[in-house]
Amino acid sequence: MATTRSEGNEAEVRLDVQARLDLLFEEFRREDELAARTALERFRADGRPSGRLGVDATARFLSGRRGSDAVRTWATDLLEWLGGQASFEALRDWYQGCSEEQKAEYQYTRFFALRAMDRITRGPDATYARGASEFLELVRRVDQDGDEQPLAAAAALSILDDSEERVRERLHRFAQPGDPARSDVETWSTLRALTEFPHPDLADELIAIVTRSCYREHVRSAIRALGGCREPQKPPDRRVIQTLGTVVATYGRRDARLAAVESLGRLGSREAADSLLHALVDADAEVRRQAAVSLTLIYRGELGELARLVCDRVLTVDEACDDHLDYLADGLRLMGARDIASEYFAAQLDSDADRVREVAERVLLQLGGRSAMRAFSRRQVLARLDESLAGSEQAVQSNFESMTLEAKRNYYFSLAVNALVVGIGLAVAVIGVLEIARNPEGVGPWLAVSSGGGLLTAVVSEFLIGTRLRGRDDVRALARFHFVYFGFLRKLSQIDATFRRTYLEAGDLKPAYLTATLKQLDQAVDTALAGLSDPDAVPSDDAAPMTPAVQGA
């Protein structure tokens, strides 16, 4: 019973694998490179099928009647991924079984079959290292076969020529003045082979081709070959990175820029980051896409650092190049860094610089997603809070200004009345003195009038001086209130700025942080009230705003 159940499960697994393979082969037959690559990646994500089912089905597809040269090359990629002795033998048997007609018809498939066998037996992730000697023997026969097509023959030469003398001899043709004939298939095949079987020591010859050749296919192949010019465990040659960077920045041909971006990603050096960031805003969409892929390869496992690098570049975009903002936002999405970038730009929404806020809003709209919407939602909450507080602040400010104006009016009125009374008293005194000098016999009445006027002046002056002093005290009190009030506003601004930053960055505020913020607000209010009630008190600044680090407490 158990055996029957096990056999049934195995049959179901085989049927499932066969169904997946059939779907994959149909995608290959569409001859759509992007669709084939996507389908192959999806198949790989489901894991390697056990046993020989996958290898046998792929071998039948490779040797079947249906399928062009371009279609069959995908089968070599699949067998390379399946790996092991069975895959090697399937590739070897198909390669050796090709007729003269098939050698010419399937030259790219044979070329990539050699690459697949090389990686299975001799690559850094070799799955059948014991087959290396058998593979090299096969390659020697290919090298000596006069009927072999130029592309496969060039691949064999690249694999066998450890001294690089024969390969260098071919490439030296480009070091001479002028350019070889476009029909020089041998040279073109050598360049194409070097893209898959790299020789780092040939960097100088390849750079000469890039800078001198006038044939775009030669330049493109040389650029792609430069992507392999890196010794294991060693950094790539800086001249290679500079050459490829120059191609990205200055070449008008789209295919050359695309090849350069791909090669920079294969080199894996962070020295290429500036060139790839420049490529993120290239006019061609495919170049921009490949730049994002290459940056992801270079910063593998460090997405946060890569996202910050791109976000910093976003903030430096000039207003005249605002379309670059959309390109960089697309790049962030392709890298899978949308959430990280959304949090970064959400924090910039509260910036003091208008340009930074404008850029942050535009990029967040381009990024989309839940993180960006949360950032806008949090900002709208803060905007509504600002609107509600703005009315209260305006009312307090208006009341304070009216009190100050009223105190000033009272002060100036008392000062004017006092001056008038004093003037009247002086006038009466002068008139009295003049009248006494003119009529000494009438001194009595004038002395009485002068004495009464002086007494009246003294009484009124005393009253008005008191009023003036009280007005002065009122102005002084208002000035102190003004000082304490704006000190209180400054404290609130500090707390508010910290709260905003933390709210925009974190979104989910913890109770400990809210409690600490409320405590600071209470301390600010107590300090302000103490400053108003005690004239000798000096407002303290002990309650400094809490830093966002407390959020994690």
Describe this protein with a few key phrases.
disordered C terminus; 553 residues; 24 helices; mainly alpha; 0% strand
Order of helices and strands: HHHHHHHHHHHHHHHHHHHHHHHH
Through-space gap between termini = 60 Å
Q: Helix proportion of residues, in percent?
A: over 70%
User: What is the typical, i.e. mean, pLDDT?
Assistant: 77
The portion of residues forming beta strands comes to: under 5%
Structural summary, described in words:
Helix 14 packs antiparallel against helix 15 (254-267) and helix 18 (303-314) crosses helix 20. By secondary structure, the protein is mostly helical. It has helices at 2-29, 33-45, 53-63, 69-82, 84-96, 100-105, 107-122, 132-144, 150-160, 165-171, 185-196, 203-212, 216-226, 238-250, 254-267, 273-279, 285-298, 303-314, 323-334, 338-348, 354-367, 369-438, 443-506, 511-533. It has 24 helices and no strands. Helix content is 76%, strand content 0%. Among the domains are: 16-160; 404-552.
Summarize the structure in short.
This protein has 553 residues and is an all-alpha fold. 76% of the residues lie in helices and 0% in strands.
Question: How are the SSEs ordered, and which strands pair?
Answer:
Layout: H1 2-29, H2 33-45, H3 53-63, H4 69-82, H5 84-96, H6 100-105, H7 107-122, H8 132-144, H9 150-160, H10 165-171, H11 185-196, H12 203-212, H13 216-226, H14 238-250, H15 254-267, H16 273-279, H17 285-298, H18 303-314, H19 323-334, H20 338-348, H21 354-367, H22 369-438, H23 443-506, H24 511-533
Helix pairs in contact: 1-2, 1-3, 3-4, 3-5, 4-5, 4-7, 5-7, 7-9, 8-9, 9-11, 11-13, 12-13, 13-15, 14-15, 14-16, 15-17, 16-17, 17-19, 18-19, 18-20, 19-21, 20-21, 20-22, 20-23, 21-22, 22-23, 23-24
